[in-house]
TrEMBL record:
InterPro entries xrefs: Acyl_CoA_acyltransferase, Bromodomain, Bromodomain-like_sf, GCN5, GCN5/PCAF, GNAT_dom, PCAF_N
Protein name, UniProt field: Histone acetyltransferase
Domain of life from the UniProt record: Eukaryota
Catalytic activity: L-lysyl-[protein] + acetyl-CoA = N(6)-acetyl-L-lysyl-[protein] + CoA + H(+); L-lysyl-[histone] + acetyl-CoA = N(6)-acetyl-L-lysyl-[histone] + CoA + H(+)
Biased composition regions of type Polar residues, renumbered to the chain: 1-11
Biased composition (Low complexity): 12-24
GO BP, one annotated term: positive regulation of transcription by RNA polymerase II
Length: 762
């Protein structure tokens, strides 16, 4: 199925789309130089393999040890007459004399190749391929200036030379063999697509697949910077670890691209998050800069994909790459969740993922709450849930306002292209009045300054020292910040196995948390304690804590919070979306939660479609888009039209739409759409999902036909059909829409006329 097709690698997508690869060097896409080198070697191998057998023996003799009697130590035949410059013609060079003596040991060429007499052509061609790879590596060694790279080239040169002498296959000797880290980059990106975008319709999900393939191919063709270059750029980085990965990359991915006698692996299949972290920032910057420089050369069908969607895809992936608690890098990602298995094929290896997001067991000590990250214009699924193809749209979804066509998608894409890089959106100062409350905390989390962990005590498992230390720290924070709460009571609840605490960790110590108890069978969670240590307040930690808690509960399908707030906490909870209007039925929570004297019961209903930890970022981006749209609209409507002169000629009234410039402002005639739906049956193309919401449609044309056929035998039948028109309109359209208001007005007018006609009592 197209919906379940995975990320399959092919040719470099950006290169195919029109971007010119960068030249190899200090990090970049492996350019045309490497491709030409590989092509030249392939041509030489083809020519050599088509040569006569004596010519092949001469070539192999140069790399074959002497087999003459007397234990000759010569390791390769050397011609008495070195090749002239320029070389002889092909016809002359074909004349090979097996009796020609070696310049080094004086034994004949035949003495060096006796072991090849009964070797098949296929095996001989394989050995000749290794010979040409050896010669190419020899050239690389002399041209290479970097010491680390030169050392790797020399090691591979000796390996291939040894393989020719022993007529064996080149096998790299290393402590570890591929893959070097699990999950691989490829699997991590597959997990990311599944985690964030599994809910999208097939067409939009295919766009995400294209972006993922584009990204994976860029990594596979990316030229890593040398360890010395990286040390200069990032002095405090793990230089030893990077050097190990660089060496592995050269041996298994880079050199085998032009020396095909070595086994070759894709970078994305044998390396994991560690290598990706070391290249992602530079790679993202170069790719986006290259895209902006080459945007005029891009094919129109690829322009929106690369300039608009690709930057946002990279921004979202970047957060998962550097996040400490992202679930996509877990080896058992989605393995234990309920649901069907979707086969995602990458290369030749099938990977199986569940259709549900990773589930964190609330009964497990020290479980990490994987935060759902930023949404984008492509609307990734925050909860990671996928609606089944046969599942109809919910009633509430269909009642949402229909704004399709309100702003043309071409205009949206054009505006988005001007905001190609989300990082280019100006950052709001953290001291600004317009800054989001959790902005500073979110940035600190992204940089790894703070962490969030859902922890709890357990009677069934061996105590974890770190978890116990954090629980003690939470007990201290709650005791200091909630002085009116008995310390023994706080201790009992924090260490109660039925209670969990979302802990805020900074520099290895607890600085805040929210203690809660989940009641899955009742559909709500009680928040017991919520506090941040005094010297860390007014930094947005409280808001960010609550947002993480909301996302944690959405993953566990609990969508209601209840808490008793004292007079000092009511303001905080109101800012977090709590109110005194409790949505949970009283019968669900009475007897389950603790009652506090002098406190106010407050509740909060969660929306599973909202990525709470990134909500302010999304709003900020949306404001930037709206601002751009407004600027464009203002530029269009600043044209000054001449005044109306028709009234001087005695005209008393004109249609509004005839006023010059009125339509350019966005004005539209009101009510015509409603009248069309009132007079004729609603078309599916004009109102998507209409017939899934409205089970019994009705319109005036149908009523007219029924009237002619004498269907209406009573007044009640006639009035029921008319009433159905008004009811359907209100059922499908939101209360603030013009259609809803028109239905109310027409209904009122209808019943006024019915009463005047005496058809019903006044």
């Amino acid at each position: 199925m197209a919906d379940s097709a995975g990320i399959q690698q092919g040719s470099p997508a950006i290169g195919a789309a029109g971007l010119v690869p960068a030249a190899p060097g200090a990090g970049g896409t492996e350019g045309s130089g490497a491709a030409r080198g590989s092509a030249r070697i392939a041509v030489k191998k083809a020519q050599l393999r088509s040569s006569p057998r004596p010519k092949k023996l001469e070539k192999l003799g140069v790399y074959s040890s002497c087999k003459a009697e007397g234990a000759c130590k010569c390791n390769g035949w050397k011609s008495q007459n070195p090749p002239p410059t320029p070389p002889q013609t092909e016809q002359q060079s074909n004349a090979v004399n097996l009796q020609e003596p070696c310049r080094s040991c004086s034994h004949t060429l035949g003495d060096h190749v006796t072991h090849l007499e009964n070797v098949s052509e296929e095996e001989m061609n394989r050995l000749l391929g290794i010979v040409l790879d050896v010669e190419y590596l020899y050239t690389c060694i002399h041209k290479e200036e970097d010491a680390d790279t030169k050392q790797v080239y020399f090691s591979l040169f000796k390996l291939l030379r040894k393989s020719i002498l022993q007529m064996g296959k080149p096998m790299l000797e290393a402590q570890e063999s591929p893959p070097f880290e699990k999950p691989s980059i490829e699997q991590g990106v597959n997990n990311f697509v599944q985690y964030k975008f599994s809910h999208l319709p097939s067409k939009e999900r295919q766009t995400i697949m294209e972006l993922a393939k584009m990204f994976l191919n860029q990594i596979n063709y990316w030229q890593l910077e040398t360890p010395s270059q990286r040390r200069q750029r990032v002095p405090n980085d793990d230089a030893a670890g990077y050097k190990v990965n660089y060496t592995r990359w050269l041996c298994y991915c880079n050199v085998p691209q032009f020396c095909d006698s070595l086994p070759r692996y894709e970078t994305t299949q044998i390396f994991g998050r560690t290598l990706l972290r070391s290249v992602f920032t530079v790679m993202r910057k170069q790719l986006l800069e290259q895209a902006r420089q080459e945007k005029d050369k891009l094919p129109p069908e690829k322009r929106t994909l690369i300039l608009t969607h690709f930057p946002k895809f990279l921004s979202m992936l970047e957060e998962e790459v550097y996040s400490h608690n992202s679930p996509i890098w877990s080896q058992d990602f989605l393995a234990g969740a309920a649901g069907g298995q979707i086969p995602i094929h990458t290369g030749d290896t099938p990977l199986y993922y569940s259709t549900s997001p990773v589930s964190v067991d609330p009964s497990t000590c020290g479980s990490v709450s994987p935060a759902r990250k930023a949404a984008s214009v492509l609307e990734p699924n925050p909860a990671g849930e996928k609606r089944k193809p046969s599942e109809p749209l919910s009633h509430e979804e269909n009642k949402r306002p229909r704004v399709v066509g309100d702003i043309p998608m071409d205009l949206i894409n054009e505006v988005m292209a001007t905001i190609a890089d989300p990082a280019a959106i100006p950052e709001t100062s953290l001291l600004s009045a317009h800054s989001a409350r959790d902005e500073a905390a979110r940035l600190e989390e992204r940089r790894g300054v703070i962490e969030f962990h859902v922890i709890g005590n357990s009677l069934n498992q061996k105590p974890n020292k770190r978890i116990l230390m954090w629980l003690v720290g939470l007990q201290n924070v709650f005791s200091h910040q909630l002085p009116r709460m008995p310390k023994e009571y706080i201790t009992r609840l924090v260490f109660d196995p039925k209670h969990k605490t979302l802990s805020l960790i900074k520099d290895g110590r607890v600085i805040g948390g929210i203690c809660f108890r989940m009641f899955p069978s009742q559909g709500f969670t009680e928040i017991v304690f919520c506090a941040v240590t005094s010297n860390e307040q007014v930094k947005g930690y409280g808001t960010h804590l609550m947002n993480h808690l909301k996302e944690y509960h959405i993953k566990h399908e609990i969508l209601n919070f209840l808490t008793y707030a004292d007079e000092y906490a009511i303001g905080y909870f109101k800012k977090q979306g709590f109110s005194k209007d409790i949505k949970v039925p009283k019968s669900k929570y009475v007897g389950y939660i603790k009652d506090y004297e002098g406190a106010t019961l407050m509740g909060c209903e969660l929306n599973p479609s909202i990525p709470y930890t990134e909500f302010s970022v999304i709003i900020k981006k949306q404001k930037e888009i709206i601002k751009k749209l407004i600027e464009r609209k203002q530029a269009q409507i600043r044209k000054v039209y001449p005044g109306l002169s028709c009234f001087k000629d005695g005209v008393r009234q004109i249609p509004i739409e005839s006023i010059p410039g009125i339509r350019e402002t966005g004005w539209k005639p009101v009510g015509k759409g409603f009248l069309k739906g009132l007079l004729y049956p609603v078309k599916k193309t004009e109102a998507p999902g209409y017939y899934q919401v409205i089970r019994f449609p009705m319109d005036l044309k149908t009523m007219s036909e029924r009237l002619k056929s004498r269907y209406y035998t009573t007044r009640k039948l006639f009035m029921a059909d008319m009433q159905r028109i008004f009811t359907n309109c209100r059922e499908y359209n939101p209360p603030e829409s013009e259609y809803y208001k028109c239905a109310n007005l027409l209904e009122k007018f209808f019943y006024t006329k019915i009463k005047e006609a005496g058809l019903i009592e006044k």
